[in-house]
What we know:
By secondary structure, the chain is α/β, with parallel strands linked by helices.
Amino acid sequence: MAAFDRAAARAHTLAISIRSDLPGFKVAVARRALAGLPSPGDYRVVIKPLRYRTRPSLSGLCEFDLGRIILRVPEPFRPFDELVYVNARRKRGAGMRFAWVAEKVHFRTRRDVLRFLYCHEWLHWYLREVQSRRSGAETACDRFALRNFRRRRVTIEDALEALQGTRMQLLPDGFRLAA
């Protein structure tokens, strides 16, 4: 348990390695946008453009085998609304049916999009790399991102709060990455 606490404390203080493939969007701007958020250890954050046909949306990816988090920012950017699913309640009866609880979030700036996507993908990283659990907890990641992306400072305790009540399985030994 002591090793877990040390790793958690160290994760917040490390600098985030960032690369921007988004034309006209400098790394310094991205670094300021992600200030106050926890570090993904030795993972690299890559910011890419997200081309769309009809309307902007959210898109991010945590590539565990390559050690990077990809954040895709809608291009051209314009403010947009997105439904974020934060909880699900099982419906009575046969089968696996759910009633989803969603909140509409207004993304005004690229900074909002970057912080939301980063919080979401960071929790996937945290589940897999720090807690050695399967990282597919989408509603927990959305809940964490929704609660924290506009906060000035986000901590490991905030992540643990978002994970309360979730039932995640441990990662099988064959899928853990060698350190």
